C-alpha cells in the first residue's frame, strides 16, 4: 500500500485497537531515505519530503500523562481566538477557510493561545496549511465539527489532492477538543481508481490520490488528544519529519471496507507515544491491516527502523495482526522490536514477517534486503482465522531474519481445526516457551552469512 516518491517507514495502527491505561505503542527512531516526489507542489510542504536535520534535540519518548485520570487532558488558555469572531459561520455549507486562517494568524502570534472551534457548529474549510513558527503553547481546540469539502468534485482544483489540514514547522502545539473532525470520505472511497472488493472476493484496480485528513510536518513537541476523527478519504493522521509526539485518548473510525484509511501513519519521525486510544477503520481487502511496520525498501531505498514497542493492545477481525513487511532490493534494517501483551481475536495473519512484499505479480527476486533482527513476541494470545497460518516468517534468501524470540505465544483457531504448520523461510531465533501452534521451522543459531548482514545496519 502507498505511496509516491520517498517510500516511507510506516506504523499502521489500523486494527480495532484498544490500548488500556498503562499501555503504549512507542516509535522511538525511524527514518527513510529515497527519491523525492517529482510532482510535489512548491506552494505546500512536499508530500514525501525527508528533513535533512532535526529541528530540536531528540526528545525522549513521551509517557502517558494521565495513566489513571479519566479527564480529557484538554489544554485551556485565557487567550482564546474563536473562529466565529473572525467571520466563520459554522453552518456546514459556507466556506470558512478565510476565517480560520485569520484566527490562526492571530493565535500564532500570542504565547499559550487557543484557536477555538466552538461546539454546536459545523465548519467547512478547504485544504489549508497552518504554518509556524508560532509562539509556544498554541492549542487548536475543536469542540464543534470540522470538515473538508464533500468529495473530489467539490475539492478546489488549486488545492493539493493529497492532504487537507497540514500543521507545518510548529513547536509545542496541541490539537485537542471534545468535537469531531469529519473526513467526508465516502465519495473518495467510491472513485473507480480506488481498490475495491470485486466479485467472489477479488480486488478491483487502484489506487489513486486522495487527501490525508491531518498531517503534521517538520514539527516538534506535539500533543494530540481527546478528539473523534472519522471517515478520512485516506490516512486519518500522518506525522512526517517530526520529533516528540504524544497521542492519547483519540477515537479514530471509518467503515471496514473503506480503502487505505490507515489510522495513525508515522514516517521519518522520532519520539512517539500512543496511549489509551481506539482505532477502527478499513483497508483495501478486509476489516483492517493490524499494526504494521513497513512497507520498507521500495525502489532499492534504505530504511532504518529501531526501538519500537507495541504493548497492551487488542486486535480484532483483522487481515493482519503484528506485521513487518519489506520489499526486495532495499537496504537498512529493522531492529529492536517488542510486541508484548497482545490479544488477537479472529485475525488471519497474527504474526507475519514478509520480506517479499509486492503490490503486483511483476516483482522480481533481488538479493539485497532490509535486515530484520532482534524481534521479540511476548505474551501474544488469542484466536486466528484458519484460512491462513497464524505465524508466517518469509525472510529473504540472502539476508536472513535473525534473533526472533517467541515467548508465551498461544494462538488457537477461532473456528475449525488447529493449523499446526507455521511457515518459516530463512528465519532464525529461539522459543523461550512452547508456542501454540508449535513453530519447529524457526532455526536455532545464526545463519551462515550472518557476517554479511552488517552492511545492512543503519
TrEMBL record:
Signal peptide: 1-27
Entry superkingdom: Eukaryota
Regions of compositional bias (Pro residues) in chain numbering: 54-68
GO molecular function terms listed in the Swiss-Prot or TrEMBL record: polygalacturonase activity
UniProt keyword annotation of Metal-binding present: no
Primary subcellular site in the record, as a coarse category: secreted
InterPro entries recorded: Glyco_hydro_28, PbH1, Pectin_lyas_fold, Pectin_lyase_fold/virulence
Cell compartment(s), UniProt: Secreted, Cell wall
TM spans (from-to): none
Short name of one Pfam family: Glyco_hydro_28
Spans annotated as Disordered: 34-74
Gene3D superfamilies found in the cross-reference section: Single-stranded right-handed beta-helix, Pectin lyase-like
One example of a Gene Ontology biological process annotation: carbohydrate metabolic process
Keyword Signal listed: yes
Compositional bias segments (type: Polar residues): 41-53
Catalytic center residues: 289
Alphabetized UniProt keyword annotations: Cell wall, Cell wall biogenesis/degradation, Glycosidase, Hydrolase, Secreted, Signal
Family membership: Belongs to the glycosyl hydrolase 28 family.
Protein name: Polygalacturonase
Source organism (scientific name): Cucumis sativus
